[in-house]
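Milestone 3.1: sequence recovery, worked example.
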């Protein structure tokens, strides 16, 4: 029978402190499973005005295609489950399910892939624009309302659940139906219908001679107020970088990890949304394929009786936990009950001064909560009152936090954050609380520290000079993971049939020459103050055994006596010790316990039961 701990970690829902990698990836999968997939349609104006070169020699159409191509390649890496599509309007040819004139659906909503990227790639540059004219042509007698209708039909045709539906409209024409009021009215009606069905329409307006005037037509079509929340001003895009900034801000949707209640007492609560501000990026899981057909291989696990070889059904197995020398057998219903720790939510415990929170209390990345009016009306007012009082008195909120059912409760501190805006009154940091995960008493470890070696004031002053010379302005978004970036570039090169992958720049490598130039002779002066005259940092260190008169045998350090070990075995509390301590104990008594903690505990338990 397998033990209860292995069951809890491998088959039950796992908390991040136990399996951080699996938990974070599971959260991403859960987002798609319960919230649905993100969907985005690029609606591109293909009229002649988009192909006229600007002052830099490029065209608005080419800039648009480059932007869409960039989003596709990034989505393949970051969110390959999202659905993307491309629709042109203002073409001579038409292709759509409703047979609207001058509306061409290049790509229906689907997962981003190499084939789609290569199809877009052929329309980049001067040659691509010539190919586009020859293939699709231009016609100014289009209806924007019908183009929006065609996009709405694409969303309706999708059979999977969609969490966010968005259309990005790329154009440099600020009044497309100036001479046709019927078409203008139809476009406004269709835009209103999109809002009513939860489809967001964003305008990515491009450079136009004389300037792009949103008030002529598009102010009634799109919601400009959303731009203020995202920090993007409604200005026309003249450069690709500016256009990419707008697109990235729009296409990245903030997902709630959970919507929970914050209980101030049994009769008073408010609803909040929980967000992950940071999530460690990993290489995607490799998938197994059948060698001959390249089809995905489905993995099935079956259990067999070790003695008879007969197939075991789930009802034939049980779970057990070893406590002392006794094996406690648990039924399936009992294991399910043991995993329930109460309803999800944040439960107020009390308040403490912010000064009591120490840096070493942070044991995993924090989360962020923001009020949600969708569950309880008035949550925003109560949330803001609590936030302002905590900021005013410099207090933190202590809570019991259960993220989901079957997840163990955590002890957390809610740290208030005041809203920050820049000189243009654009929000930099939102108001809310950071959820700081605090350690339990069981999480604390006793570590033997070496004696503190005092430094002279002269040495301290010299190091201060070195630190001052090497200071720089740090921004978290300035450093990309070089291993991940190179991995994705290699995959991109293989998928797109490139001759060789682009080499990723490792921004984490120290700029040695620049550092030496800044420091000058400070490092040598510091060495003279700290190290002896004959010190050579590149010299080979002399081993302790070689320096002594005779060979010295390494002694095992066991922090506990034999009687203490026997007592812990009898009480079933061996799990409190670290793996290194258990290994030393096994070596001391000549036991072979393997490398896993449970195997070491089993070896010690068996030894003390016989001796």
């Amino acid at each position: 029978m397998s033990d209860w701990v292995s069951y809890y970690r491998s088959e039950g829902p796992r908390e991040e402190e136990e399996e951080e990698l699996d938990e974070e990836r599971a959260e991403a999968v859960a987002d798609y499973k319960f919230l649905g997939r993100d969907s985005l349609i690029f609606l591109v104006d293909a009229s002649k005005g988009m192909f006229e070169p600007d002052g830099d020699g490029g065209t608005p159409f080419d800039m648009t295609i480059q932007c869409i191509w960039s989003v596709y390649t990034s989505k393949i890496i970051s969110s390959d489950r999202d659905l993307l599509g491309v629709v042109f309007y203002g073409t001579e040819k038409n292709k759509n399910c409703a047979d609207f004139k001058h509306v061409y659906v290049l790509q229906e909503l689907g997962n981003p892939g190499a084939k789609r990227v290569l199809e877009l790639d052929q329309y980049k540059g001067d040659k691509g624009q010539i190919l586009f004219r020859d293939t699709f042509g231009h016609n100014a007698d289009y209806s924007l309302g019908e183009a929006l209708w065609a996009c709405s039909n694409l969303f309706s045709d999708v059979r999977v659940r969609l969490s966010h539906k968005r259309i990005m409209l790329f154009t440099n024409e600020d009044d497309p139906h100036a001479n046709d009021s019927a078409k203008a009215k139809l476009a406004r009606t269709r835009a209103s219908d999109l809002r009513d069905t939860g489809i967001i329409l964003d305008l990515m307006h491009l450079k136009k001679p004389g300037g792009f005037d949103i008030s002529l037509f598009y102010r009634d079509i799109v919601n400009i107020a959303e731009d203020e929340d995202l920090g993007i001003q409604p200005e026309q895009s003249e450069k690709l970088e500016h256009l990419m900034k707008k697109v990235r801000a729009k296409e990245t949707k903030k997902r709630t990890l959970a919507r929970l209640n914050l209980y101030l007492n049994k009769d008073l609560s408010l609803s909040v949304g929980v967000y992950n501000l940071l999530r460690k990026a990993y290489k995607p899981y490799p998938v197994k394929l059948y060698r001959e057909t390249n089809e995905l291989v489905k993995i099935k696990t079956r259990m067999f009786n070790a003695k008879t070889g007969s197939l075991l059904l789930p009802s034939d197995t049980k779970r057990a936990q070893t406590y002392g020398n006794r094996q406690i057998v648990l039924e399936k219903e009992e294991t399910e009950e043991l995993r329930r720790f109460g309803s999800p939510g944040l439960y107020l415990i009390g308040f403490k001064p912010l000064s009591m929170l120490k840096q070493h209390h942070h044991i995993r990345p924090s989360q962020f909560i923001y009020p949600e009016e969708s569950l309880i009306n008035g949550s925003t007012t109560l949330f803001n009152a609590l936030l302002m009082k905590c900021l005013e008195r410099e207090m933190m909120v202590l809570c019991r936090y259960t993220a989901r059912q079957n997840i163990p409760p955590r002890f957390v501190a809610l740290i208030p954050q005041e809203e920050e805006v820049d000189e243009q009154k654009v929000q930099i940091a939102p108001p809310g609380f950071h959820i700081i995960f605090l350690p339990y008493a069981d999480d604390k470890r006793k570590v033997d520290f070496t004696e503190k070696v005092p430094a002279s004031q002269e040495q301290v002053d010299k190091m201060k000079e070195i630190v001052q010379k090497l200071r720089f302005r740090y921004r978290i978004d300035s450093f990309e993971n070089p291993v991940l970036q190179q991995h994705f570039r290699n995959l991109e090169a293989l998928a797109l049939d490139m001759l060789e992958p682009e080499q990723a720049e490792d921004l984490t490598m120290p700029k040695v020459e620049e550092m030496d130039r800044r420091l000058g002779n400070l490092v040598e002066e510091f060495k003279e103050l700290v190290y002896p005259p004959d010190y050579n940092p590149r010299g080979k260190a002399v081993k302790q055994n070689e320096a002594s008169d005779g060979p010295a045998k390494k002694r095992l350090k066991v922090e506990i006596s034999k009687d203490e070990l026997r007592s812990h075995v009898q009480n079933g509390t061996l799990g409190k010790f670290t793996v290194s301590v258990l290994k030393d104990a096994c070596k001391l008594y000549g036991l072979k316990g393997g490398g896993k903690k449970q195997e070491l505990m089993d070896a010690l338990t068996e030894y003390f039961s016989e001796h």
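Residues 1-34, 225-233, 544-556 have pLDDT under 50 and may be disordered. The longest strand covers residues 162-171.
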